Amino acid sequence: MGLAAFRQPVTGIVAALSLALAGCGGGDSSGSVAPTPTPTSTPGSARVYPTLASEALTVSDVQKVIAQAVGEAQALNYPAVIAVVDRVGNVLAVYRMNGAPTRMIFSKITGAGTENATPTGFQGVNVEASMGAIAKAVTAAYLSSSGNAFSTRTASMIVQQHFPPAPNTPGLESGPLFGVQFSQLPCSDLNTRYAAGNAGSGAFIGPKRSPIGLSADPGGLPLYKNGVVVGGIGVMADGDYAFDRDVSNVDGDVEEYEALAGIQGFAPDDAIRADKIPVDGTTLRFSDARVEGLHTLKSDYAAIAGTAGTLVPVNGYFDGKAILPGTAYGTEASGFRYATSSEFSNPDAFVLTDGSGNNRYPIRGGTDAADVAQPLTAAEVRAVLEEAFKVMSRARAQIRRPLDSRAEVSLSVVDTYGTPLGVVRGPDAPIFGTDVSLQKARTAAFFSNKVAAAQLQGDLDAGVPAFVDAVRTFLGDPQALTGTKAFADRSGGNLSRPYFPDGEVGRPNGPLSLPIDQWSPFATGLQTALIKADVVQHAVFVEGSLNARDVKQQCSNVPDAPNGKKRLANGIQIFPGSVPIYRGTQLVGAIGISGDGIDQDDMIAFLGTNNGGVKVGSIGNAPKDIRADTIVVNVGNGVRLRYVNCPFAPFLDTSDQNVCEGL
């Protein structure tokens, strides 16, 4: 994921705003334990990350969470749909109160602050309200870890066109997780699917998909037990699926108050909440609702079961018959576990599992021999992942508490077809980074590929082919997107912002974005155009419409690669943290990183590829003369695209600076 060290100084306005925001938020620390520093031993054969306690939500825990949220909703006279998920996204309950909305509408408010008369992307799309509640719960669970507790209000703050989003902050760069909302998609080939009536046979293997990706609508908060994140709650009560455009004030959001009531006894420790985590002088947001504003808690589920509302089925997510217990993250049943020594050399590494002991993404060689003279070998993939994991283990985390904790990320390597060649994780890396790291790797491999333009032109989804001409016109290069340049996600992200250069008001939009009077977190440009049809099809399926089929487990409508799969099988990502991998001048794959800071993500990808290449002597980063940072866009005095941005003095064990310089 990553919250970056930004590239421009913090203005007085932002600094003042960050002071005003510090301390905003709600929640108590009941049931939580303050974090302890990461062990300081040198990475090697022994584990350097703490072993997580095994915790999971019980049925009675879920009942209490729902009862407390329902009690607050009754006191506010604002009935809601309430969803609870475990850490890996399994839906444990969906409770619809009597009178709660059955539909919700994506906001049509644009980045310019006006309602779009001609909605683009998902603006104005009307879907089943339970989809929003589930998405909010998944977001809070997936963005959080034992070192950081994030909410959907946190997500709202970090995905907009300026960071922080407020009327008095124009001209600042876009949010550090710009575009992350379109991850965990229902069409993703990485995220797993609920199997109705099959709970004892792999149905709970995660990470699960979200029905509409991640949410920026306040009302989703994480759940903790004994300092361990165990899930999330999501509340949908007003039918308006939106985002917070102004973080300089405090909202009285009923959905957030209802969610806050729900997490009492399961709240994160104050020390790790988003409102204790600054990014370049700006404190993040956790919740505008406050514990002292809650009504008397009601925790008796028996008193509301079948009277205040009822459990409801949600097609593809929950059968509505009974509340389910959560799975403990790190167990075989959760879909994540420690790697065996034969799977990965570092004993701290986690892998994804199928629930029967099998690694879902074992390290292997490239599958693209039909197009690449010398595909990546398994030894080369292993070397890149091992070296990247070592860089992660030494790096200082950006968003994790306490300070000077080690970074924890997810790492994915793909070939030029987008085929996963290996996926590993830090043990406590946020769950969302698993899908995002694969998105990032595939995005870098795709836009650096000689077939990128042809693939986009072959996609018949509305508006997708036009982005090729837009890029070529914008760059003044009729051969753009034909493999002549190497694109990292930071490079493609530059071209995906509603202002170019990033954040500078009055500038044109990047060619992969939309103009600011059309753009919103629900309409980002090419990213949304590629997957809108998939998500809408899934929404029809969730609603249970007659004969509706679920969306395929392959995102986008780009033509299939020679292996019969989509190169963008879980969508694209447009915030930093990936680089393509080359053998000389030949593209052979890419690595994507997501978890603890976008500059950290860039560094781990870039140094991991470099160090892995040095180790095996055959592969490495793109040659300097074809990297995207050689492209100068004729805007004003000329603006150079970016490739990677590594943090200064990033390591815990040395004072080295400029660690990516000259590579």
From TrEMBL:
Gene3D superfamilies on file: Haem-degrading domain (3.30.450.150)
Record-linked SUPFAM superfamilies: GlcG-like
Transmembrane parts of this sequence: none
Coiled-coil residues: none
Pfam families attached to this UniProt entry: HbpS-like
InterPro entries, alphabetized: GlcG_carb_metab_protein, PduO/GlcC-like, PduO/GlcC-like_sf
PANTHER family to which the protein is assigned, alphabetical: PROTEIN GLCG, SLR1406 PROTEIN
Name the UniProt record assigns to this protein: Heme-binding protein
Naturally occurring in which organism (per UniProt): Novosphingobium olei
